[in-house]
Design brief:
alpha/beta; Spore Coat Polysaccharide Biosynthesis Protein SpsA, Chain A; 2 domains; seven-stranded mixed sheet; 10 helices
């Protein structure tokens, strides 16, 4: 199988050395392309990639994890793409495990068996929200170790942000558009080198907003209809309470019922607009 392996890297000289060490012999034997996207690093990341024999794509300045992946996907020579992190967490010997499912699925994700550290509760919360909004079980929402087809992924790049939330967005995009996604349990090591720049409160909040925005794009009714029903029930109950308790129809009840109706039709309109946007892009 013709494979391009994309490794986004920003100041990952320590982790990259541990990643490319076992990866390059396997890739050379299999005839795979290994591409390191240097996202404006100020350390020896680019030099290590060249010395190891990897193909180097460089950004003149730091643009973000998602931007590095976009550059790698657009520059990849082969249609089957493996993305993995540069911090030494992923085992190159497990690439074959992902590829073994690519004949039946459009994306295969290496789901981490155990999420370590303080961010684990935040990731669990975000996964619960994503599971509800997407209507599917997502074992690992933002795993950086996955396989997919280049042409399918390119159709979603305009939706994906340039930040670390790239993986979250493309996962939801695949699921909402009906593509087959397979989750395969994998073991990961502790990261090597600099500390992760992901922060629970700062980036977790951004990711939560991103999940809602993406689902509104792919399935707006999932957001608007529940909110409309809640407002309608509250308005009806408040109106009944006003009639029974004060013998008059309260203005708040009427306004709440009208708001629920407006919200319902906004959901219908948003759903139609989202469908038109997707159809135009796919055409």
């Amino acid at each position: 199988m013709s494979v391009s392996i994309i490794i986004p890297a920003f100041n990952e000289e320590q982790g990259l050395e541990r990643t490319l060490g076992p990866l390059m012999p396997i890739a050379t034997q299999k005839g795979w392309e290994v591409m390191v996207v240097d996202d404006g690093s100020t350390d020896r990341t680019a030099d290590l990639a060249r010395r190891a024999g990897a193909r180097l794509v460089s950004h003149p300045e730091n643009k973000g994890y998602g931007a590095a992946l976009k550059s790698g996907i657009r520059s990849a020579s082969h249609d089957t793409i493996i993305m993995m992190d540069a911090d030494g967490q992923h085992d190159p010997s497990q690439i074959e495990l992902l590829l073994s499912h690519m004949d039946r699925y459009d994306m295969v994700v290496g789901a981490r068996k155990k999420l370590r550290g303080i961010r684990a509760p935040g990731k669990k919360m975000l996964s619960m929200v994503a599971n509800y909004l997407s209507g599917m079980d997502i074992p690992d929402l933002n795993s950086g170790f996955r396989a997919f087809r280049k042409e399918v992924a390119k159709s979603f790049l305009h939706f994906c942000p340039n930040t670390f939330s790239f993986t979250t967005t493309i996962t939801l995009a695949y699921l909402r558009e009906g593509y087959g996604v397979k989750y395969v349990p994998v073991d990961v090591d502790r990261r090597v080198g600099r500390r992760s720049t992901v922060r629970f409160f700062r980036d977790g909040y951004k990711t939560l907003l991103l999940i809602i925005r993406v689902i509104v794009l792919f399935n707006p009714l999932k957001v608007f209809i529940p909110a409309s029903v809640i407002l309608l029930l509250f308005g009806v109950l408040f109106t009944i309470y006003g009639i029974i308790g004060f013998h008059r129809v309260p203005n708040t009840g009427v306004l709440t019922i009208l708001s629920s109706i407006i919200l319902f039709f906004m959901g219908i309109l948003s759903d139609q607009i989202a469908a038109i946007r997707r159809e135009r892009h796919l055409d």
